[in-house]
Amino acid sequence: MYQWSGLLLLTFGVEFSGAFFFGEEIPVSSNATLLDFFVGEDFSVGCTQNFTGNKSFHWDFYSYTISKKTVFLSNDDGGNHVEMDLSFQYATLEILGLLETDSGRYDCVTDDIVRTWKIVVHDPNQMEYILAGRGQSPWEDTVVNEYKVYMQWSTWTECDGCNGNGERRRFGFCRVTTDNGLEHCKSKEIPYLLRTIAKNRPEEIIVDICYDHCKELTAPVQRSTRRIDLTNNADVTIQCDVSSDVRSSVRWERSFTTLNRNDYSFGYSKARAMYVKKDNFLMLNNVRKPDGGTISFSCVKDRSFRNTFNLVVEPLPDSGIPSTLDHLQYMALSSTVQFTLFLLILGVYNALRNFVLETSMEI
Q: Which of 52, 259, 354, 357 holds its CA 20 to 30 A away from the CA of 34?
């Protein structure tokens, strides 16, 4: 459910079909801008038109996910998710903490112009890891007649390691070429066949190995140390820093040994004791230390500062039932005693038997 701030909303149950919206043709904009965001990021855009005089304007939102058209008219309603700012006589639209349901087309409509922004909001954990260090490669482009489904790649993140092997990442966002130019693969303005093909094309995160001497940088500064209390067999997810996000350069370490994504993320299942998630969080499964104690992890963000996390694990309670090792030791000791008694009894028996035989022969 949307929460809108400063907006009067008029919603209509409508659905895209090609370039139409329940029979209503979507205005064609020659200056559409395509943008990609991750969940939680902010989107702010200004129509950059001076609205002095009697000009009217509004924002139209054509959703890619919930099949609705929403009209933003004024700053009369409350809320904290979407805001429209009319200061400085410009139509500014701002969405704080983007959700996947914010994906769609945003038109700033005035008396004589339509300006368009098309955005898709991605959940990084739904993207596919491509681990170049394990020989994996991105999907190949798909060509259908004169149309193409392909990846639009971001720039590489900064290498996360110094004076040794590190890792860097970049993000692949799906695009489709159409008669009207480029579109997001999740757009409902593309032909149905291309939409079906694009729907099965996962977006990707390439993890590649990099090497950087970092001669110009000083050692990361220790920023904080945090204690996390756990019980045995618990799961825990750790964020490096409140300011870190998907696009940040984050390296995780255990006892100063790097936890490479190419090593720990392959397989990416509950069976993995630890791995770096696609949103840069560290996931630990079934933390186990029966006798209790501390397990330390550190993260280094943007090669500039380090945070340390001390996981203090409570020991398992003494149930009064011997452990498997104790039981095996008890069985071994018991068997030794029994075997010794058997040999002793056998020796006594043989001694008595010999004595009887000797006595009988004398008689």
A: 52
